[in-house]
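Can you give me the bound-state structure? Components:
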Amino acid sequence: MIDLLNGFATVLQPINLVFAALGVTIGTLVGVLPGIGPALTIALLLPITFNFDDPTGAFIMFAGIYYGAMYGGSTTSILLNTPGESASVATAIEGHLMARRGRARAALATSAIGSFVAGLISTVLLAFVAKPIGDLAVKFQAADYFALAVLAMVSVTALLGASLVRGLISLVLGLFLGLVGLDQVTGQTRFTFGAPVLTEGIGITIVIVGLFAIGEVLYVASRVRTGHDTIEPLEKARLRTGYMSREDWSRSWRPWLRGAAIGFPFGALPAGGAEVPTFLSYTFEKRRAERAGRDDFGRGAIEGVAGPEAANNASFSGVLVPLLTLGLPTSATAAVMLAAFQIFNLQPGPQLFQTSSELVWALIASLFVGNVLLLVLNLPLIQIWVKVLLVPRPLLYGGILVLATLGVYSLSGNVLQVFIAYGVGVLGYFMRRHDFPIAPVILGVILGPMMETQLRRALVISDGNFGAIVSRPLTLVILALAVLSLLLPYAPGVLGRLRGRRTEAKKLVFSDED
Amino acid sequence: MKPSLIAVITAFAVSACGQFTDTSGGGGGSSTFPSRNLEIMAPAAAGGGWDLTARSMQSALKDEKIVDKSIEVSNVVGAGGATGLAQLLSKGQGDPHQWMVTGLVMIGAAERAKNNTDLTKTTPIATLTAEAEAIVVRADSKYQNIKQLVDDFKANPAAIKWGGGSAGGSDHLVVAVLAKAAGADVKKIQYVGYSGGGEAKAGILSGDVTAGVSGVSEFKANIQAGQMRLLAVTSPAGKEGAPSLKESGYDAELMNWRCVVAGPGLSEADRTAVVNTVDKMHNSAKWKEALAKQGWEDFYKKDSEAKDFIAAETKRIKDLVKELGLS
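Here's the bound-state model for the whole set.
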């Protein structure tokens, strides 16, 4: 506790507050650009910190950048359906529908406040349970990660949308895109057609920018003159309860807490990151809504924004757990931060809390400060952000196309990657035109390689014995959960039939009541 | 095009431009290096080893006023570095102002990229740093020393699961070099590739793999905390309290070295000028400070010495990569 207070004393120095504010602002501005997420922003700014004498300021700025970039990414997801990185894909689904119904302010507010709440909760967790969680994280072996990927895959089927066949086709497309590049286990190339540019694989960011930003632009362009595309005007600006109505608040706070509860532990797992927990949170909220008899998912449900956004922010504190306690980066951002630690000749690991405790606690304190600053800066900015929707659409989407192109190019410095993104964008256009859901593609690109690599690692380790996948209790439990979550929805119908009663074939979704 | 035609065009260009400076140097004549901005390319993302090396060079050259022109560091990402190499070979032809920081890992990457390029096609300037690799086991492993591990490995190669960075990278090569020196079948190595040292650490700590291989600095914190046991290092002499493979009776050595190269076709004079510049940088206090700060080991060979070393390593590593069945 004393350590944490000392941390605050460090962070609350004026110069460090300036760094934090600078980080949040830069992060938000850059995060708004499609394709440029927190990892790239921090990587681009790394060389600047090379000249800092004191690492504390740099890390405080990085924490600010992370939160800012995440929030900026959510903003464009909600307003324009153009998420910049995988963590805000889940937000885009309901968030953009809300914006189309004139509820952009409420969506942005629940996202900002939810991020804040989840950020606070998860930072408290980071400060007090980092050590035990870190120890737990290294108990997971390759087979367990495989099981975890299976669990994630079957439990987020809600993302597949209304038509199972279309959803599965999208998913398979994603799985295929994930195969391109170097095979991680043997180092052989797959589907690269001999082109060196493809050996790195088709980056998830390229797929996201292509499918969402470029695909959306093409789709809007094809409809803007035909009058098919109507957006309801923004609803009344200020309610007495802030940007959100009383109902919004009461529907948001539980998803925030649940999102934080899902995000933190998943972030802490090596192989975690923000994607899986955001998708899981979305699925969870959707199923709860269905069970409660509400059918507004698919028409802009606020829970579908509140949950994933909270999970997204909470996962960052989770990601810091293995990074600080074990020196394990579990996400792209964490990997860049690890590099930053190394620039300052600090070795994150079991001893970091002892050898550089001042820095670690300053970093944790800066997460609190970053969260507060983000809320303070961004709530008023919502008024400005929503004005984006008033920009004439041809201009707006022309601008998005330019920014998306710039984003992809700055990612790789390679014009071929830009062409790949446009190719994926054309695909995204036809998927929208023919009602194929987009999110499953992203899911496939993320989970496919993870599932494959972990399974093959487990098989190398067990000399090709598939029994290894069910030989450990932990693996077995996770796989059993996966089977359950696949079968549970059909249980009432089956049970009813066994009892010989006629029941409506109603699906059961998570049985607890709040 | 006939030489005479080139001469005519050149003469025309010179007279037309008035202030034409010949940066390509031509044959023999004196070098004008540096006559414009210096570009140091790191063929990898910002924050990695090559990038840090390039930026340390940049600040040493600038702060010690060795080069009075401005110096830019650029990152060219792709194909494990092969994209950057291809770019240097095509755009850096005969230009002393385009340098690239690279090293051991590039050899395997270039081999896998299958575009018939390798480091010997560049103009080597100097090798700069080298890092030893470490072989570790989890603290509760039954292996107390490298001999016990290698004996079991020889008896049954498939029983030992090695973990380290991506397949074909320096960590994988260490296992191959050790297998060859110990007389075990290279093809039977069971290697689990992780994306980077961090993930590999998780694999070692969770008990996925029997033994782990990565740079010494990568494991340092875990070894000091008593989570891992260091069995051997791959440098010529032992360090961090562990013997080297050589000292343990295996004729195996592999350092993860880094070097700086320029494009192909540099004139004699330009090459000498660049080598002298790097030589001054290497002797500067700022560079020594960077070495100490990053924990890099000084590994300096310049000009023809560097050329011979890189050629020898290229041949050795290419053969290894082929034997591992990776190319």
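A couple of observations. Confidence is low (pLDDT under 50) at residues 503-514 of chain A. Chain A has 20 helices and two strands.
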